[in-house]
Amino acid sequence: MSGARADRALRDGTDTVLPRSRLWAAGGRALTHSGLLFGIVVVLLATLAAIAPQTAARQDPLAQDIGNRLIPPAWMTGGNPEWLLGTDHLGRDILSRVLYGSRVSLAVGLWSVAIGGPIGLLLGLLAGYRGGVMDVLVMRLVDLHLAFPFVLLAMALISILGPGLWKMVAVFSLTSWMLYARTVRASVLSLREREFVQAARAMGARSGRIVLRHVLPNIVSTLVVLLSFDVARIILAESALSFLGLGVPPPTPSWGGMLSEGREYIQDAWWIAAFPGLAIMLVTVGVSFFGDGLRDLLDPQFDTLENRSARR
Amino acid sequence: MPNLYIRQVLQSAFVLLNVTIVVFVLIRIVPGDPVRLMLGMEASEDAIQAARAQFGYDRPLHEQYLRFVGGALRGDLGHSLRFRRPVGELLMETLPATLELAAAAVGIALVLAFPAGIYAAVHRGSVADRVLMGGALIGQAMPIFWLGIMLITLFSVKLGWLPTSGRGSLPQLVMPSVTLSTYVMALLARLTRSNMLEVLREPYVRTARAKGLREALVVHKHALKSAALPIVTVLGLQIGALLSGAVVTETVFNWPGIGTLALRAIQQRDYPVLQGVVLVSAVLFVVINGIVDLLYRFLDPRVRLA
Lengths: 312, 306
Prior knowledge:
Radius of gyration of chain A: 23 Å
Number of strands of chain B: 0
Shape of chain B: flat
Oligomer: heterodimer
Largest sheet of chain A: none
Mean pLDDT of chain B: 81
Largest interface: A-B, 42 and 50 residues
């Protein structure tokens, strides 16, 4: 794979390095890339909802109002514009809970990647560049990690650690860095043999300098794309754990938790479960588009005319 | 050549060895004494000591580990703290249900994803391509438990066509297996499409076309074969995702498989059962992937003859 990629890069005369002019071009193309634009909008909206939910939420997400329980969304008969997306079994405003619920999903997704990413990068660099014992160790850990179903392993760890937002972050960063390390290692292995790295070595550059100046800049874009995809994966896993009752304890609103509550009322109030699910989907699709778009822009493999036409 | 097979088996065995260590450590770092949990708060100190000796919890750790591995090799996975039954028995009761669900899901995924991916690749850029790939993207981004709940709302609550839960009849299998299949289906469809696109550019496909072969023949005989091969490997690696999905799907539909068992074990702090479920699913993954690797070597002449 990496060999084929290097071949293609040679054939097309493209390189994995991004000169400044190309970066500007990439920035310009971002505005015309509809997928990326959609991703950016969704990510911005979700971030806004997480930072300042009170701007759009008209109700306290925790305020119960038993007199107004199970009110359908505003556009249905019996709906009330006061509760745009209806209320749940305790009379809480669904819209407010969905908006506040973004906090848990985004916090877990972003923090897990922010902690796991650098660990994976560091160990992947060490394994790929140094090789030897480090390499064997990291790769065996990856093999071992792959053998466990992700959600089941996370469930088992949470059942030991106990539920909570930071414990979820711990579990997800602990179980994700290996995947990043593997990708980084693979890129380093192919970069190590490339001419410009060989040249640097021939000129007497020390390992640290080669890794920092020549290897790292060529890995960053791959890693950023991988991490942005992984935010989506972790948000999905977090919602699954919350759904199973192993996430952030109630009454804190989380999308998975809302879904699990809504499941009990599926006979008479579909909207309790429907909207948090749509929120999860929108955010994961948005983040995936964001990652896809980033890859189109940053990865020169997709930058050739041939590939651009292939993707149209 | 036989060297490769031996290496493969040794590698799998090595991973399995590490799996047992992880699983063993996992249950030992649980806060609280498992024996005390099992006997309850009011148990006397003597009874606790006796039970601890009976289950071997009073032995040194390395001895406990060897007993655990030795037992596991003979099919003895310890005793459930809540059900007061051997974990092996519980697994034998629930595993077939999970395998049935997973097999049905993979079957649905294969039957639909291959044609969809091939069609999208051949008609690249068409409306159908965009619709199929958009659907695949959503399928990958959708929380499957949400899909399950929405299917229940539509087909059970509103239309009354399918039962909401349980196992035993074909109608009961429909919604859980469709739910579980979505992720794998979406992944396979996207992969088939991109592999086909890649292969369709290969010189030998151009040659086949230049010979004047019909397009259908080119696609199905020449391109599909090499495009399908890498998918075998990916499918093997998706076993983990499939089992993760099964845990969630089973919960939504009250499907009596190992996922439901695992969740109950967690809720009731029945750690030996949880240990058994994790161990069995990891073994399943390693064994299936070992077979897939061997199969791949056998199927792909480039690797076989290398």
